[in-house]
Write a structure and sequence with these properties.
The structure holds 2 protein chains of 2 kinds. By secondary structure, chain A is of the alpha/beta class. Chain A has helices at residues 47-54, 85-92, 110-120, 126-139, 155-167, 185-200, 212-218, 236-242, 247-261, and strands at residues 9-18, 21-31, 36-40, 62-67, 70-71, 95-98, 173-177, 205-208, 221-226, 229-234. In chain B, helix 2 (45-59) packs across helix 4 and helix 3 crosses helix 4 (83-108). The chains are: A alpha/beta, B mainly alpha. Bound molecules: adenosine-5'-diphosphate and magnesium ion (MG). Chain B: Belongs to the binding-protein-dependent transport system permease family. HisMQ subfamily.
Chain lengths: 262, 215
Amino acid sequence: MNANQQPLLKIDDLRKSFGQANILKGIDMAVNKGEAVAIIGPSGSGKTTLLRCVNFLETYEEGSIRIDGQEVGYRDGGNRQRRGETDLARMRAETGMVFQSFNLFPHLTAAENVMLGLTKVRRKPKQEAREIAEHWLKRVGLDHRIDNLPSELSGGQQQRVGIARAVAMEPKILLLDEITSALDPELVNEVLDVVRQLAEEGMTMLMVTHEIAFARDASHRIVFMDDGKVAAEGPPKELMAQAGSNQRLDAFLSRFRTSHLH
Amino acid sequence: MATILYALPFLLQGFLITLWVSALVVVFSLAGGLVLGVGLVYGPRTVQWLVRLFSDCIRGIPILVLIFVVYYGFPPLGIAINAFWAGVVALTLFKGAQVIEYVRGAISSIPKGQMEAGKAIGLTFVQRLRYVIFPQAVRRFLPPWINGVTDAVKGSALISLLGIVDLMQSINEVIGRTYEAMPLYLLGAFIYFAINYSLSLTSRFVERRYAYIRD
Ligand SMILES: Nc1ncnc2c1ncn2[C@@H]1O[C@H](COP(=O)(O)OP(=O)(O)O)[C@@H](O)[C@H]1O
Ligand SMILES: [Mg+2]
Protein backbone atom coordinates (compact mmCIF):
# COMPACT_ATOMS: atom_id res chain seq x y z
CA MET A 1 0.00 0.00 0.00
CA ASN A 2 1.09 3.48 -0.83
CA ALA A 3 2.11 5.17 2.43
CA ASN A 4 0.26 8.43 1.85
CA GLN A 5 -2.90 6.83 0.54
CA GLN A 6 -5.60 7.22 3.17
CA PRO A 7 -7.32 4.05 4.31
CA LEU A 8 -10.94 3.57 3.25
CA LEU A 9 -11.99 2.94 6.84
CA LYS A 10 -10.13 4.58 9.66
CA ILE A 11 -11.08 4.05 13.29
CA ASP A 12 -9.30 6.06 15.96
CA ASP A 13 -9.52 5.50 19.70
CA LEU A 14 -13.13 4.37 19.45
CA ARG A 15 -14.88 4.06 22.80
CA LYS A 16 -18.36 2.84 23.46
CA SER A 17 -20.23 1.95 26.59
CA PHE A 18 -23.67 0.65 27.41
CA GLY A 19 -24.57 2.40 30.64
CA GLN A 20 -21.78 1.64 33.08
CA ALA A 21 -20.22 -1.11 31.00
CA ASN A 22 -17.31 -0.06 28.81
CA ILE A 23 -17.53 -2.31 25.77
CA LEU A 24 -15.07 -0.75 23.33
CA LYS A 25 -12.03 0.61 25.10
CA GLY A 26 -10.10 2.51 22.47
CA ILE A 27 -10.06 0.73 19.14
CA ASP A 28 -7.65 1.77 16.42
CA MET A 29 -8.07 0.13 13.07
CA ALA A 30 -7.60 0.86 9.40
CA VAL A 31 -8.89 -0.97 6.37
CA ASN A 32 -7.53 -0.16 2.94
CA LYS A 33 -9.47 -0.24 -0.25
CA GLY A 34 -9.71 -3.78 -1.60
CA GLU A 35 -8.62 -5.31 1.66
CA ALA A 36 -10.49 -8.10 3.44
CA VAL A 37 -10.00 -7.92 7.19
CA ALA A 38 -11.27 -10.61 9.53
CA ILE A 39 -12.04 -9.94 13.17
CA ILE A 40 -11.80 -12.83 15.57
CA GLY A 41 -12.03 -12.94 19.32
CA PRO A 42 -13.93 -14.42 22.23
CA SER A 43 -17.64 -13.87 22.57
CA GLY A 44 -18.45 -10.62 24.34
CA SER A 45 -15.22 -8.93 23.27
CA GLY A 46 -17.15 -6.25 21.36
CA LYS A 47 -16.86 -7.44 17.75
CA THR A 48 -20.52 -6.99 16.92
CA THR A 49 -20.63 -3.64 18.67
CA LEU A 50 -17.66 -2.46 16.63
CA LEU A 51 -19.33 -3.39 13.32
CA ARG A 52 -22.57 -1.76 14.40
CA CYS A 53 -20.74 1.45 15.21
CA VAL A 54 -19.20 1.50 11.74
CA ASN A 55 -22.72 1.44 10.28
CA PHE A 56 -23.97 3.77 13.03
CA LEU A 57 -26.53 1.23 14.20
CA GLU A 58 -24.95 2.13 17.55
CA THR A 59 -23.85 5.60 18.54
CA TYR A 60 -20.39 6.01 19.99
CA GLU A 61 -19.24 8.47 22.58
CA GLU A 62 -15.58 8.96 21.91
CA GLY A 63 -13.12 8.55 19.13
CA SER A 64 -13.83 8.64 15.44
CA ILE A 65 -14.80 6.40 12.56
CA ARG A 66 -14.12 7.72 9.11
CA ILE A 67 -15.07 6.25 5.77
CA ASP A 68 -13.30 7.92 2.88
CA GLY A 69 -12.42 10.73 5.25
CA GLN A 70 -16.01 11.37 6.32
CA GLU A 71 -16.98 10.97 9.95
CA VAL A 72 -19.71 8.33 10.36
CA GLY A 73 -22.78 9.45 12.26
CA TYR A 74 -21.58 12.88 13.32
CA ARG A 75 -21.17 16.04 11.33
CA ASP A 76 -17.64 17.03 10.46
CA GLY A 77 -16.29 19.82 12.61
CA GLY A 78 -15.72 17.88 15.77
CA ASN A 79 -18.62 19.12 17.91
CA ARG A 80 -20.39 15.74 17.95
CA GLN A 81 -23.52 16.87 16.23
CA ARG A 82 -25.47 13.87 15.03
CA ARG A 83 -26.11 13.87 11.30
CA GLY A 84 -29.66 14.42 10.13
CA GLU A 85 -31.80 11.48 9.05
CA THR A 86 -31.25 11.83 5.30
CA ASP A 87 -27.55 12.43 5.81
CA LEU A 88 -27.28 9.32 7.98
CA ALA A 89 -29.20 7.26 5.44
CA ARG A 90 -26.85 8.46 2.69
CA MET A 91 -23.81 7.47 4.76
CA ARG A 92 -25.28 4.09 5.64
CA ALA A 93 -25.92 3.33 1.99
CA GLU A 94 -22.13 3.42 1.53
CA THR A 95 -21.64 0.53 3.93
CA GLY A 96 -23.24 -2.83 3.29
CA MET A 97 -24.15 -5.03 6.21
CA VAL A 98 -24.87 -8.73 6.35
CA PHE A 99 -26.43 -9.90 9.60
CA GLN A 100 -26.00 -13.04 11.63
CA SER A 101 -29.77 -13.50 11.62
CA PHE A 102 -30.18 -12.63 7.91
CA ASN A 103 -32.88 -10.01 8.56
CA LEU A 104 -34.40 -10.42 5.13
CA PHE A 105 -37.67 -8.59 4.57
CA PRO A 106 -40.16 -11.47 4.88
CA HIS A 107 -42.92 -9.79 2.86
CA LEU A 108 -40.67 -9.35 -0.18
CA THR A 109 -39.29 -11.92 -2.62
CA ALA A 110 -35.55 -12.47 -2.99
CA ALA A 111 -35.46 -10.09 -5.96
CA GLU A 112 -37.56 -7.48 -4.16
CA ASN A 113 -35.28 -7.67 -1.13
CA VAL A 114 -32.36 -6.74 -3.34
CA MET A 115 -34.33 -4.16 -5.33
CA LEU A 116 -35.67 -2.13 -2.41
CA GLY A 117 -32.46 -0.19 -1.76
CA LEU A 118 -31.78 0.15 -5.48
CA THR A 119 -35.14 1.77 -6.23
CA LYS A 120 -35.71 3.77 -3.05
CA VAL A 121 -32.17 4.79 -2.13
CA ARG A 122 -30.27 4.67 -5.42
CA ARG A 123 -33.40 5.79 -7.28
CA LYS A 124 -32.91 3.35 -10.13
CA PRO A 125 -35.82 2.58 -12.44
CA LYS A 126 -37.59 -0.65 -11.56
CA GLN A 127 -36.45 -2.44 -14.71
CA GLU A 128 -32.79 -1.66 -14.11
CA ALA A 129 -33.07 -2.57 -10.42
CA ARG A 130 -34.59 -5.89 -11.39
CA GLU A 131 -31.70 -6.62 -13.74
CA ILE A 132 -29.14 -5.78 -11.07
CA ALA A 133 -31.00 -7.96 -8.59
CA GLU A 134 -31.08 -10.88 -11.02
CA HIS A 135 -27.40 -10.40 -11.75
CA TRP A 136 -26.42 -10.59 -8.08
CA LEU A 137 -28.80 -13.39 -7.22
CA LYS A 138 -27.25 -15.39 -10.04
CA ARG A 139 -23.81 -14.52 -8.72
CA VAL A 140 -24.68 -16.03 -5.35
CA GLY A 141 -26.13 -19.09 -7.05
CA LEU A 142 -29.83 -18.41 -6.64
CA ASP A 143 -30.93 -18.36 -10.28
CA HIS A 144 -33.92 -20.50 -9.44
CA ARG A 145 -34.99 -18.69 -6.31
CA ILE A 146 -35.29 -15.14 -7.61
CA ASP A 147 -39.02 -14.81 -7.05
CA ASN A 148 -39.29 -16.84 -3.87
CA LEU A 149 -40.17 -15.44 -0.48
CA PRO A 150 -37.55 -15.79 2.26
CA SER A 151 -39.78 -18.30 4.06
CA GLU A 152 -39.40 -20.58 1.05
CA LEU A 153 -35.60 -20.56 1.22
CA SER A 154 -33.10 -22.52 3.30
CA GLY A 155 -30.91 -20.65 5.78
CA GLY A 156 -27.92 -20.74 3.45
CA GLN A 157 -30.02 -19.43 0.59
CA GLN A 158 -31.47 -16.68 2.76
CA GLN A 159 -28.03 -15.56 3.80
CA ARG A 160 -26.90 -15.47 0.18
CA VAL A 161 -29.85 -13.20 -0.57
CA GLY A 162 -28.63 -11.10 2.37
CA ILE A 163 -25.23 -10.82 0.73
CA ALA A 164 -26.75 -9.98 -2.66
CA ARG A 165 -28.91 -7.31 -1.04
CA ALA A 166 -25.83 -5.69 0.51
CA VAL A 167 -23.44 -5.84 -2.43
CA ALA A 168 -26.01 -4.78 -5.03
CA MET A 169 -25.87 -1.33 -3.46
CA GLU A 170 -22.18 -1.18 -4.41
CA PRO A 171 -21.08 -0.21 -0.94
CA LYS A 172 -17.59 1.08 -0.32
CA ILE A 173 -17.18 -1.49 2.40
CA LEU A 174 -19.03 -4.66 3.33
CA LEU A 175 -19.56 -5.53 6.99
CA LEU A 176 -20.25 -9.16 7.85
CA ASP A 177 -21.15 -10.25 11.36
CA GLU A 178 -20.74 -13.98 11.95
CA ILE A 179 -22.91 -14.57 8.93
CA THR A 180 -22.69 -18.35 9.12
CA SER A 181 -23.17 -18.89 12.83
CA ALA A 182 -26.95 -19.32 12.52
CA LEU A 183 -26.56 -21.92 9.78
CA ASP A 184 -26.52 -25.69 9.88
CA PRO A 185 -22.95 -26.89 9.34
CA GLU A 186 -23.67 -28.32 5.88
CA LEU A 187 -24.87 -24.89 4.67
CA VAL A 188 -21.87 -22.92 5.88
CA ASN A 189 -19.63 -23.47 2.88
CA GLU A 190 -22.06 -22.30 0.23
CA VAL A 191 -22.12 -18.94 2.02
CA LEU A 192 -18.41 -18.72 2.73
CA ASP A 193 -17.62 -19.51 -0.91
CA VAL A 194 -19.56 -16.43 -1.97
CA VAL A 195 -17.67 -14.26 0.52
CA ARG A 196 -14.34 -15.72 -0.52
CA GLN A 197 -15.04 -14.88 -4.12
CA LEU A 198 -16.06 -11.31 -3.28
CA ALA A 199 -12.78 -10.91 -1.40
CA GLU A 200 -10.83 -12.20 -4.39
CA GLU A 201 -12.57 -9.66 -6.60
CA GLY A 202 -11.37 -6.84 -4.40
CA MET A 203 -14.45 -6.04 -2.33
CA THR A 204 -13.37 -4.18 0.79
CA MET A 205 -14.60 -6.18 3.75
CA LEU A 206 -14.60 -6.18 7.50
CA MET A 207 -15.84 -9.55 8.69
CA VAL A 208 -16.37 -10.92 12.13
CA THR A 209 -16.07 -14.68 11.99
CA HIS A 210 -15.47 -17.65 14.20
CA GLU A 211 -14.45 -19.73 11.20
CA ILE A 212 -10.72 -19.49 11.88
CA ALA A 213 -9.72 -21.53 8.85
CA PHE A 214 -11.83 -19.28 6.67
CA ALA A 215 -10.34 -16.12 8.20
CA ARG A 216 -6.86 -17.51 7.54
CA ASP A 217 -7.56 -18.39 3.91
CA ALA A 218 -9.84 -15.60 2.78
CA SER A 219 -8.57 -12.48 4.53
CA HIS A 220 -5.54 -10.29 4.02
CA ARG A 221 -5.32 -9.44 7.66
CA ILE A 222 -6.74 -10.74 10.91
CA VAL A 223 -7.54 -8.60 13.93
CA PHE A 224 -7.81 -10.34 17.28
CA MET A 225 -10.12 -8.51 19.66
CA ASP A 226 -10.17 -9.16 23.36
CA ASP A 227 -12.05 -7.28 26.06
CA GLY A 228 -12.91 -4.27 23.91
CA LYS A 229 -9.44 -3.79 22.54
CA VAL A 230 -7.38 -4.90 19.58
CA ALA A 231 -5.06 -7.41 21.21
CA ALA A 232 -3.15 -8.51 18.13
CA GLU A 233 -3.27 -8.08 14.39
CA GLY A 234 -1.40 -8.96 11.26
CA PRO A 235 -1.51 -11.01 8.08
CA PRO A 236 -2.94 -14.46 8.86
CA LYS A 237 0.39 -16.29 9.07
CA GLU A 238 2.01 -13.60 11.21
CA LEU A 239 -0.94 -13.47 13.54
CA MET A 240 -0.95 -17.22 14.05
CA ALA A 241 2.76 -17.01 14.78
CA GLN A 242 2.14 -14.42 17.50
CA ALA A 243 0.16 -16.97 19.45
CA GLY A 244 3.36 -18.12 21.10
CA SER A 245 3.93 -14.73 22.73
CA ASN A 246 0.33 -13.68 23.28
CA GLN A 247 -1.32 -15.78 25.95
CA ARG A 248 -4.91 -14.63 25.30
CA LEU A 249 -4.58 -15.23 21.57
CA ASP A 250 -3.04 -18.60 22.21
CA ALA A 251 -5.89 -19.57 24.54
CA PHE A 252 -8.44 -18.42 21.99
CA LEU A 253 -6.85 -20.22 19.05
CA SER A 254 -6.24 -23.43 20.96
CA ARG A 255 -10.01 -23.94 21.10
CA PHE A 256 -10.00 -24.24 17.33
CA ARG A 257 -6.78 -26.18 16.90
CA THR A 258 -8.30 -29.55 17.58
CA SER A 259 -10.85 -29.00 14.85
CA HIS A 260 -8.07 -28.04 12.44
CA LEU A 261 -6.20 -31.29 12.75
CA HIS A 262 -8.56 -33.49 10.89
CA MET B 1 -95.16 -5.98 10.30
CA ALA B 2 -97.05 -2.77 9.61
CA THR B 3 -95.07 -1.08 12.36
CA ILE B 4 -91.86 -2.12 10.78
CA LEU B 5 -92.88 -0.83 7.37
CA TYR B 6 -93.90 2.43 8.99
CA ALA B 7 -90.60 2.60 10.84
CA LEU B 8 -88.25 1.83 7.98
CA PRO B 9 -87.94 5.31 6.45
CA PHE B 10 -87.16 6.77 9.88
CA LEU B 11 -84.72 4.04 10.64
CA LEU B 12 -83.02 4.53 7.29
CA GLN B 13 -82.32 8.15 8.19
CA GLY B 14 -80.96 7.13 11.55
CA PHE B 15 -78.98 4.34 9.96
CA LEU B 16 -77.29 6.81 7.61
CA ILE B 17 -76.38 9.10 10.51
CA THR B 18 -74.92 6.15 12.37
CA LEU B 19 -72.85 5.17 9.34
CA TRP B 20 -71.71 8.76 8.82
CA VAL B 21 -70.64 9.19 12.45
CA SER B 22 -68.88 5.81 12.41
CA ALA B 23 -67.07 6.65 9.17
CA LEU B 24 -65.84 10.00 10.47
CA VAL B 25 -64.70 8.43 13.72
CA VAL B 26 -62.92 5.60 11.94
CA VAL B 27 -61.04 7.89 9.56
CA PHE B 28 -60.02 10.50 12.15
CA SER B 29 -59.05 7.97 14.79
CA LEU B 30 -57.02 5.98 12.26
CA ALA B 31 -55.06 9.02 11.11
CA GLY B 32 -54.50 10.36 14.61
CA GLY B 33 -53.84 6.99 16.21
CA LEU B 34 -51.32 6.04 13.54
CA VAL B 35 -49.26 9.19 14.05
CA LEU B 36 -49.42 8.99 17.85
CA GLY B 37 -48.77 5.24 17.80
CA VAL B 38 -45.59 5.77 15.77
CA GLY B 39 -44.68 8.54 18.22
CA LEU B 40 -45.22 6.13 21.10
CA VAL B 41 -42.82 3.56 19.64
CA TYR B 42 -40.16 5.67 17.96
CA GLY B 43 -40.59 9.17 19.40
CA PRO B 44 -38.27 10.89 21.85
CA ARG B 45 -38.89 10.19 25.55
CA THR B 46 -41.18 13.18 26.11
CA VAL B 47 -43.38 12.30 23.12
CA GLN B 48 -43.60 8.68 24.29
CA TRP B 49 -44.56 9.83 27.75
CA LEU B 50 -47.23 12.25 26.52
CA VAL B 51 -48.82 9.71 24.18
CA ARG B 52 -48.83 7.09 26.92
CA LEU B 53 -50.48 9.54 29.31
CA PHE B 54 -53.10 10.49 26.71
CA SER B 55 -53.86 6.90 25.81
CA ASP B 56 -54.09 5.69 29.41
CA CYS B 57 -56.33 8.59 30.46
CA ILE B 58 -58.73 8.19 27.56
CA ARG B 59 -58.95 4.44 27.92
CA GLY B 60 -59.62 4.84 31.61
CA ILE B 61 -62.78 6.86 31.00
CA PRO B 62 -66.07 5.20 29.99
CA ILE B 63 -67.17 6.30 26.51
CA LEU B 64 -70.38 7.74 27.87
CA VAL B 65 -68.53 9.99 30.34
CA LEU B 66 -66.17 11.03 27.55
CA ILE B 67 -69.12 12.08 25.41
CA PHE B 68 -70.57 14.23 28.16
CA VAL B 69 -67.18 15.68 29.07
CA VAL B 70 -66.70 16.86 25.50
CA TYR B 71 -70.29 18.06 25.05
CA TYR B 72 -70.51 19.99 28.32
CA GLY B 73 -66.83 20.62 28.90
CA PHE B 74 -65.73 22.21 25.63
CA PRO B 75 -68.11 25.21 25.48
CA PRO B 76 -66.89 26.66 28.84
CA LEU B 77 -63.36 26.41 27.43
CA GLY B 78 -64.49 28.64 24.60
CA ILE B 79 -64.77 25.81 22.07
CA ALA B 80 -68.20 25.93 20.52
CA ILE B 81 -69.36 22.42 19.68
CA ASN B 82 -72.73 21.02 18.70
CA ALA B 83 -74.08 17.65 19.73
CA PHE B 84 -73.07 15.96 16.47
CA TRP B 85 -69.42 17.04 16.59
CA ALA B 86 -69.20 16.51 20.32
CA GLY B 87 -70.18 12.90 19.65
CA VAL B 88 -67.70 12.55 16.82
CA VAL B 89 -64.85 14.10 18.82
CA ALA B 90 -65.53 11.96 21.90
CA LEU B 91 -65.75 8.74 19.92
CA THR B 92 -62.64 9.70 17.94
CA LEU B 93 -60.65 10.25 21.14
CA PHE B 94 -61.82 6.89 22.41
CA LYS B 95 -61.09 5.03 19.17
CA GLY B 96 -57.85 6.92 18.65
CA ALA B 97 -56.52 5.66 21.98
CA GLN B 98 -57.34 2.12 20.88
CA VAL B 99 -55.66 2.61 17.51
CA ILE B 100 -52.53 3.81 19.33
CA GLU B 101 -52.39 0.53 21.20
CA TYR B 102 -53.00 -1.57 18.09
CA VAL B 103 -50.26 0.32 16.25
CA ARG B 104 -47.85 -0.11 19.15
CA GLY B 105 -48.63 -3.82 19.38
CA ALA B 106 -48.32 -4.39 15.65
CA ILE B 107 -45.02 -2.52 15.34
CA SER B 108 -43.50 -4.16 18.42
CA SER B 109 -44.27 -7.59 16.99
CA ILE B 110 -41.73 -6.96 14.23
CA PRO B 111 -38.18 -8.05 15.04
CA LYS B 112 -35.68 -5.25 15.66
CA GLY B 113 -33.51 -6.60 12.85
CA GLN B 114 -36.04 -5.41 10.27
CA MET B 115 -35.53 -1.76 11.14
CA GLU B 116 -31.77 -2.33 11.20
CA ALA B 117 -31.73 -4.06 7.82
CA GLY B 118 -33.66 -1.07 6.46
CA LYS B 119 -31.14 1.30 7.98
CA ALA B 120 -28.26 -0.72 6.59
CA ILE B 121 -29.37 -0.32 2.98
CA GLY B 122 -29.78 3.41 3.52
CA LEU B 123 -33.55 3.83 3.82
CA THR B 124 -34.66 6.92 5.73
CA PHE B 125 -36.96 6.63 8.73
CA VAL B 126 -40.11 7.33 6.73
CA GLN B 127 -39.04 4.87 4.02
CA ARG B 128 -38.36 2.19 6.61
CA LEU B 129 -41.84 2.64 8.02
CA ARG B 130 -43.45 2.64 4.63
CA TYR B 131 -41.62 -0.19 2.89
CA VAL B 132 -40.44 -2.40 5.74
CA ILE B 133 -42.42 -1.92 8.95
CA PHE B 134 -45.97 -1.07 7.88
CA PRO B 135 -46.38 -3.81 5.24
CA GLN B 136 -45.52 -6.35 7.93
CA ALA B 137 -47.33 -4.66 10.79
CA VAL B 138 -50.57 -4.31 8.85
CA ARG B 139 -51.20 -8.02 9.19
CA ARG B 140 -51.16 -7.75 12.98
CA PHE B 141 -52.94 -4.42 12.97
CA LEU B 142 -55.94 -5.09 10.77
CA PRO B 143 -57.84 -7.88 12.56
CA PRO B 144 -58.10 -6.14 15.95
CA TRP B 145 -58.62 -2.81 14.25
CA ILE B 146 -61.53 -4.01 12.15
CA ASN B 147 -63.01 -5.63 15.23
CA GLY B 148 -62.51 -2.26 16.88
CA VAL B 149 -64.49 -0.61 14.12
CA THR B 150 -67.46 -2.63 15.32
CA ASP B 151 -66.94 -0.95 18.71
CA ALA B 152 -67.17 2.40 16.99
CA VAL B 153 -70.45 1.43 15.32
CA LYS B 154 -71.86 0.09 18.58
CA GLY B 155 -70.44 2.96 20.59
CA SER B 156 -71.99 5.48 18.25
CA ALA B 157 -75.41 4.46 19.63
CA LEU B 158 -74.48 6.41 22.74
CA ILE B 159 -74.61 9.73 20.92
CA SER B 160 -78.38 9.28 20.78
CA LEU B 161 -78.16 10.46 24.39
CA LEU B 162 -77.13 13.88 23.09
CA GLY B 163 -80.35 13.96 21.08
CA ILE B 164 -78.76 13.13 17.74
CA VAL B 165 -81.17 11.12 15.64
CA ASP B 166 -78.95 8.21 14.76
CA LEU B 167 -80.20 4.67 14.29
CA MET B 168 -80.68 4.21 18.03
CA GLN B 169 -82.53 7.47 18.52
CA SER B 170 -84.73 6.92 15.47
CA ILE B 171 -85.75 3.57 16.94
CA ASN B 172 -86.59 5.31 20.21
CA GLU B 173 -88.63 7.92 18.41
CA VAL B 174 -90.63 5.40 16.42
CA ILE B 175 -91.32 3.48 19.62
CA GLY B 176 -92.47 6.75 21.17
CA ARG B 177 -95.10 6.96 18.47
CA THR B 178 -96.14 3.31 18.06
CA TYR B 179 -95.56 1.93 21.59
CA GLU B 180 -94.28 -1.30 20.06
CA ALA B 181 -90.92 -1.61 21.68
CA MET B 182 -89.96 -5.22 21.21
CA PRO B 183 -90.15 -5.68 17.42
CA LEU B 184 -88.36 -2.39 16.87
CA TYR B 185 -85.56 -3.08 19.31
CA LEU B 186 -85.16 -6.48 17.68
CA LEU B 187 -85.03 -4.86 14.27
CA GLY B 188 -82.49 -2.32 15.55
CA ALA B 189 -80.41 -5.06 17.08
CA PHE B 190 -80.52 -6.94 13.81
CA ILE B 191 -79.31 -3.94 11.83
CA TYR B 192 -76.39 -3.33 14.21
CA PHE B 193 -75.60 -7.02 14.09
CA ALA B 194 -75.69 -7.06 10.28
CA ILE B 195 -73.21 -4.17 10.07
CA ASN B 196 -70.86 -5.69 12.59
CA TYR B 197 -71.09 -9.22 11.32
CA SER B 198 -70.07 -8.10 7.87
CA LEU B 199 -67.14 -6.31 9.49
CA SER B 200 -66.05 -9.47 11.28
CA LEU B 201 -66.25 -11.38 8.03
CA THR B 202 -64.05 -8.73 6.43
CA SER B 203 -61.60 -9.04 9.30
CA ARG B 204 -61.37 -12.79 8.84
CA PHE B 205 -60.90 -12.39 5.11
CA VAL B 206 -58.13 -9.85 5.66
CA GLU B 207 -56.41 -12.12 8.14
CA ARG B 208 -56.26 -14.89 5.55
CA ARG B 209 -55.17 -12.54 2.82
CA TYR B 210 -52.16 -11.41 4.88
CA ALA B 211 -51.13 -14.84 6.00
CA TYR B 212 -48.14 -14.79 3.63
CA ILE B 213 -45.60 -14.65 6.41
CA ARG B 214 -45.01 -17.89 8.20
CA ASP B 215 -44.05 -17.33 11.81
N1 LIG C 1 -27.58 -3.09 23.41
C1 LIG C 1 -26.78 -3.49 24.41
N2 LIG C 1 -27.01 -3.11 25.69
C2 LIG C 1 -26.21 -3.49 26.68
N3 LIG C 1 -25.13 -4.27 26.54
C3 LIG C 1 -24.84 -4.69 25.30
C4 LIG C 1 -25.64 -4.32 24.17
N4 LIG C 1 -25.10 -4.89 23.07
C5 LIG C 1 -24.02 -5.57 23.49
N5 LIG C 1 -23.85 -5.46 24.82
C6 LIG C 1 -22.77 -6.06 25.61
O1 LIG C 1 -21.55 -5.68 25.03
C7 LIG C 1 -20.62 -6.74 25.11
C8 LIG C 1 -20.02 -7.01 23.76
O2 LIG C 1 -21.03 -7.55 22.92
P1 LIG C 1 -20.77 -7.87 21.41
O3 LIG C 1 -20.28 -6.65 20.73
O4 LIG C 1 -22.03 -8.47 20.90
O5 LIG C 1 -19.62 -8.93 21.51
P2 LIG C 1 -19.19 -10.04 20.45
O6 LIG C 1 -19.86 -9.76 19.15
O7 LIG C 1 -17.72 -9.93 20.38
O8 LIG C 1 -19.60 -11.34 21.04
C9 LIG C 1 -21.36 -7.93 25.69
O9 LIG C 1 -20.99 -8.03 27.05
C10 LIG C 1 -22.80 -7.56 25.56
O10 LIG C 1 -23.54 -8.08 26.63
MG1 LIG D 1 -21.23 -10.90 18.02
